[in-house]
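Marked as duplicate of an earlier ticket. Keeping the data here for the record.
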Amino acid sequence: MGDLLDFLRENFEQFDAAAAFDIFIIWLAIFWILLLLRNTTAMTVIRGATIVLIAAFVLVRVFDLRVLDFLLRNSFLGLLIVLAVVFQHEIRRALERVGRAASRAMGGATHYDETIEAITEAADRMSRRHIGALIVVERDTGLQEYTEGGVPIDAVASPELLENIFYPNSPLHDGAAVVRGDRIVAASVTLPLAENQLPGEYGTRHRAGVGITERTDAVSVMVSEETGDVSVAADGRLYSRLDETRVRGLLERLLGARNGDAP
């Protein structure tokens, strides 16, 4: 215990304004990283690993465990590399959030008023006729890597065109239609499936609609072929059993339309 007190005393004697500013910068960086990783799998693992490391450092100082002290001092860099590899998806999403924030600060916002109306009307029509559909609206994160595997469309988004794409037995009805701004850029697009488990009532279409929102900031609209229910997905969350008014309001809130926010 005496060694620990001497260690703390020596460090406090060297503490000055520059050291305080240095600590503040490090604390701010750690807080920013934790804020970006909140509500992710990485956050849970980091919390558990932090508790284990703190306990290990305390044991080293109290009981003078030299072997454990050696391992802790020489494995820290390796642990950082392992965390970067294991949680590359979460880290990528965190960095994308920073990029999206900078993009919004430097550039003007895209208006989706006509797109929202077209998607809302098409979803309502297809819901009444039990036509399955998956529509993905691109925001700041580009979806080029996904649309390259689909069929190029490049046409103004309209309820009629969206209905034709997803009409049963249409060559394009499988997969998703991707909308960029006010244009449908591709159809029959294959999307990654959701990592989080969805209730058994939701099939591949909903898993794909949620999956793309887990990896990007896109917004998905799904129409169930079996029940006719309309769902919206964003940030890995699924909002289901929506009527036309709620679909429009939710899309306005998520896409930042000029008509106002959702009620």
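See parent ticket for discussion. Residues 259-263 have pLDDT under 50 and may be disordered.
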